[in-house]
Design brief:
Layout (H helix, E strand, L loop, with lengths): L20 H13 L5 E9 L9 E10 L5 H7 L4 H13 L9 E2 L10 E7 L5 E7 L11 H29 L2 H6 L1 E9 L7 E2 L1 H14 L4 E10 L2 E9 L7 E10 L2 E8 L1
Parallel strand pairs: 6-11
Antiparallel strand pairs: 1-2, 1-5, 3-4, 4-5, 6-7, 8-9, 9-10, 10-11
Length: about 270
């Protein structure tokens, strides 16, 4: 659940205002792609002109930042996303009215990627674009008896249980009940924010201090979740937070990782 800080509020959680585009991609790669099991990598239409280039320039071909231990078969399939296919995916996504766009776009079979995948689009006014690529597991009932149906039901139960855990902390956040809020987090939970050089909070004691101050002093604090996606042990929320002192309305995406019925990590994307 989002905590108070002094960053400028963005007009869109997909639109990147910073000029340091390549620096943002590097941070997204290190803080999200490498740390989360469902992430496959990044694909963009830009390239660095030198190793320490923070801005980047447009590339004639699509550029990839793959997870270091990506499945070789998926690696080869993703390399088939050329510039034409990349632009077609983006054009289809942006053709939707903004209120109708899903934060994570499910790529359809017509793109012939070879497996189910979600992408999180990012872009700038200068037409620099990128996708965060995530694995999407789909279970299909087939001719192997009831095994696949049972597997689907089990996965649905896991997804609901993980969604319920995140919902519990959301409800406690809005009631400003610190004990109930912290109850669903692991003792050594790590909270990071894309775009920040350091971890925001490390461990439940740090969370207790920071959120305790918020719950005491911010009487109008409230968070709503217009959209939620649950994939295996990850719950991905679009969050709209109000009541954060002088910050106005804050839009963010929170990626919650859950293990043993506890939230073990959170990455905020703004």
């Amino acid at each position: 659940m989002f905590s108070f800080h002094t960053h400028e509020v963005l007009s869109s959680i997909h639109k990147v205002e910073s000029d340091f585009w390549e620096e943002m991609l590097d941070k997204l790669y290190s803080k999200v792609v490498q740390k989360h099991k469902s992430c496959l990598g990044l694909i963009s239409n830009t390239i660095k002109t030198k190793p320490n280039d923070k801005v980047g320039e447009f590339s004639e071909n699509t550029q990839f930042l793959f997870k270091s231990k990506i499945d070789p078969e998926k690696h080869d399939l993703l390399l088939l996303i050329d510039k034409d296919k990349f632009n077609a995916i983006f054009q289809e996504y942006l053709a939707f009215e903004e209120d109708d766009r899903s934060d994570f776009y499910h790529l359809k079979e017509k793109y012939e990627i070879g497996f189910e995948m979600l992408v999180y689009p990012l872009y700038t006014q200068l037409e620099k674009k990128a996708f965060l690529m995530l694995l999407m597991l789909i279970f299909t009932a087939c001719d192997s008896g009831n095994g696949d149906i049972l597997l689907l039901e089990q996965q649905s139960l896991v997804n609901k249980a993980n969604s319920d855990i995140v919902q519990r902390q959301l409800d406690a956040y809005n009631r400003r009940n610190l004990d109930e809020f912290l109850d669903v987090y692991s003792h050594d939970c790590v909270i990071t924010e894309l775009g920040s050089n350091d971890t925001i909070m490390n461990g439940k004691e740090a969370m207790k201090s920071r959120y305790g101050d918020m719950f005491t002093n911010l009487k109008n604090l409230n968070c709503t979740v217009p959209k939620r996606i649950t994939v295996n042990n990850f719950v991905i929320d679009e969050e709209v937070v109000t009541g954060l002192r002088d910050s106005g309305t804050v839009h963010a995406v929170a990626v919650y990782e859950i293990e043993n019925d506890s939230i073990v990590s959170v990455v905020f994307i703004r």
